[in-house]
């Protein structure tokens, strides 16, 4: 009877977001949910979903205090079609994560319908979120602040008194005369400066003991005073100057005489940015790639300066200039955490929709250190795919030893397809204890004939063949749909590389990035292989080693996709060399032998 009584209490008291957000024991200082550890089923609408694979915000009507909660993916994943404005049903366990009440999913989110408008933000003052004695509502805290956790709020006429770091983020400490709170910058291009006057809105969360407001994007920040936000190269002969307010009617802002560069460089013209009323585009003489420039702005109401790296910063320069940490075997770039933005360009080798997080990989060449991970396009509407060229401006950061470009200021896609091929590496080259594996961080690589030894979790452990316990790396399987990796499988695999958390991981983007050479092969069996070993005007030569036999086609194509020759190979086992005859002229051809595809050159 007692157990039944407890169950009935939980069902009755934890049926809504409002119930879940009620503090357990505020008199004793416990502002965690009274429903902690309860399994709940909640119906609500998505307040904000950035595309993150980890969390989204949920609200219920009537929108107000205690009506918002964060949903964590828990033991499941979000539906691919999930979007802000969806009406959903979620089932999960109520938990407290660093002061934030959240629902950790135990089953898949059910989407009921879509397209609901986002509710208007709740107009509050800084005092509502200020739990210190400085708040004019100090006697009501932290009850009041806690009630706005995970809701959408708006604050007006805020004055920036300090720029601070909380955790890993940059925040503007602001006041409106009633108290103090913090406005985040992580989802925006806003660069706060002491003295700025602004209106701001966003989602409230608890972060390192503070109630902070996280804007969802640039549209949630309205700066009311003219200031210089940033300046950076968007090409080798153009610079974008970002102001804090609309300058589309300010004639001084498009007078090139009001700008100076050091080292000296001619500024040929200035024009309004058609895509951003807060920005001006300067055309210059060719900039030196990677040169640190200072731009000076001299308007009647603003005199300021900003430093940036001009032109395109070579990715190889960023990745190969590091300070080695022998304890962690990490290679943090000397450009990491610099206050100066960089612009990089490369061919996309992995677009964000293929990975467990919204990563984008680009590569400027097939040289060592030429790859880069781009972080910050998770909420972006930028559309691209592998083979397109991407230009981005942002800041070099280190995330647990992984070098990346984050805090993006500018993004441009140049449609392809541009050709790119993987760098062929050995399994030992991707072993974390081999410091040379740093060369391949963020690069697009291919590794042939690796042996699967452990498939626990989302990252599969592989080794060389025959297996060698000193040579291992990981292969992520989350993008694979029809290929199942099992112990004892021999594969070729390709994809971008992350070197992080003491591991090197290859991320196949499609099923076609994995070639299954054999399944259930013993550790001492002969190595199955198909390989193109040559080409001339009379055809293509391949080698094969198939202990269990095989039946596979070999095809030769022109680069335009025309089939030129085809031969079906059948063998009961063994190894050998075969010629596939064809009349070829000087040029590049594509050869498919079984599941192996490669390019050959006939001279």
Describe this structure in words.
This protein has 603 residues and is mainly beta. The chain has six domains: 112 residues, Beta Barrel (OB fold (Dihydrolipoamide Acetyltransferase, E2P)), CATH 2.40.50; 93 residues, Beta Barrel (OB fold (Dihydrolipoamide Acetyltransferase, E2P)), CATH 2.40.50; 82 residues, Immunoglobulin-like (Sandwich); 100 residues, OB fold (Dihydrolipoamide Acetyltransferase, E2P) (Beta Barrel); 96 residues, Beta Barrel (OB fold (Dihydrolipoamide Acetyltransferase, E2P)), CATH 2.40.50; 74 residues, Immunoglobulin-like (Sandwich), CATH 2.60.40.10. The chain has four helices and 41 strands. The strands form nine sheets. Strands 3-4-5-7-6 form a five-stranded mixed β-barrel. The N terminus is likely disordered.
């Amino acid at each position: 009877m007692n157990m039944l009584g407890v169950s009935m209490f939980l069902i009755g008291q934890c049926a809504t977001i409002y119930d879940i957000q009620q503090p357990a024991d505020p008199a004793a200082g416990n502002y965690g949910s009274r429903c902690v550890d309860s399994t709940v089923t909640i119906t609500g609408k998505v307040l904000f979903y950035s595309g993150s694979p980890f969390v989204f915000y949920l609200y219920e009507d009537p929108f107000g205090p205690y009506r918002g909660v964060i949903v964590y993916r828990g033991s499941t994943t979000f539906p691919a079609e999930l979007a802000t404005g969806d009406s959903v049903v979620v089932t999960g366990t109520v938990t407290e994560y660093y002061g934030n009440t959240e629902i950790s999913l135990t089953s898949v989110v059910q989407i009921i319908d879509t397209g609901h408008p986002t509710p208007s933000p709740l107009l509050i003052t800084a005092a509502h979120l200020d739990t210190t004695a400085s708040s004019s509502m100090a006697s009501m805290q932290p009850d009041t602040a806690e009630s706005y956790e995970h809701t959408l709020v708006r604050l007006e006429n805020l004055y920036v008194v300090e720029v601070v770091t909380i955790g890993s983020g940059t925040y503007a400490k602001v006041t409106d005369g009633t108290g103090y709170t913090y406005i985040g910058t992580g989802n925006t291009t806003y660069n706060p400066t002491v003295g700025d006057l602004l209106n701001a809105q966003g989602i409230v969360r608890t972060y390192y003991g503070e109630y902070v407001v996280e804007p969802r994007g640039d549209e949630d920040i309205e700066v009311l005073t003219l200031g210089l936000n940033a300046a950076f190269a968007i090409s080798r002969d153009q610079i974008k100057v970002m102001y804090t307010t609309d300058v589309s009617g300010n004639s001084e802002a498009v007078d090139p005489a009001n700008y100076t560069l050091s080292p000296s460089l001619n500024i040929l013209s200035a024009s309004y940015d058609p895509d951003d009323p807060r920005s001006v585009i300067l055309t210059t003489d060719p900039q030196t790639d990677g040169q640190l420039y200072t731009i000076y702005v001299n308007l009647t109401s603003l005199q300021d300066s900003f430093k940036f790296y001009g032109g395109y910063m070579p990715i190889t320069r960023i990745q190969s200039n590091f300070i080695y940490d022998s304890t962690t075997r990490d290679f943090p770039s000397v450009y990491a955490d610099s206050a100066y933005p960089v612009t990089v360009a490369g061919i996309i080798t992995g677009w964000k929709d293929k990975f467990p997080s919204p990563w984008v990989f680009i590569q400027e060449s097939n040289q060592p250190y030429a790859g880069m991970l781009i972080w910050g396009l998770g909420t972006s509407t930028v559309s691209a795919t592998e083979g397109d060229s991407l230009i981005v401006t942002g800041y070099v950061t280190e995330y647990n030893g992984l070098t990346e470009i984050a805090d993006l200021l500018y993004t441009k896609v140049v449609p392809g397809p541009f050709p790119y091929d993987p760098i062929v590496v050995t399994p030992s080259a991707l072993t974390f204890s081999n410091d040379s594996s740093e060369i391949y961080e963020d690069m697009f690589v291919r590794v042939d004939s690796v042996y699967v030894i452990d498939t626990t979790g989302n990252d599969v452990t592989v080794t060389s063949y025959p297996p060698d316990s000193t040579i291992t790396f990981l292969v992520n399987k989350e993008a694979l749909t029809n290929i199942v990796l099992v112990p004892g499988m021999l594969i070729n695999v390709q994809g971008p590389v992350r070197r992080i958390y003491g591991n090197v991981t290859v991320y196949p983007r499609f099923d076609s990035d994995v070639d299954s050479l054999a399944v259930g092969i013993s550790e001492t069996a002969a190595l199955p292989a198909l390989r193109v070993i040559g080409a001339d005007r009379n055809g293509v030569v391949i080698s094969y080693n198939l202990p269990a036999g095989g039946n596979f086609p070999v095809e030769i194509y022109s680069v335009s996709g025309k089939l030129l020759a085809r031969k079906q190979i059948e063998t009961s086992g063994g190894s050998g060399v075969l010629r596939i005859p064809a009349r070829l002229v000087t040029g590049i051809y594509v050869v498919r032998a079984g599941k192996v595809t490669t390019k050959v050159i006939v001279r």
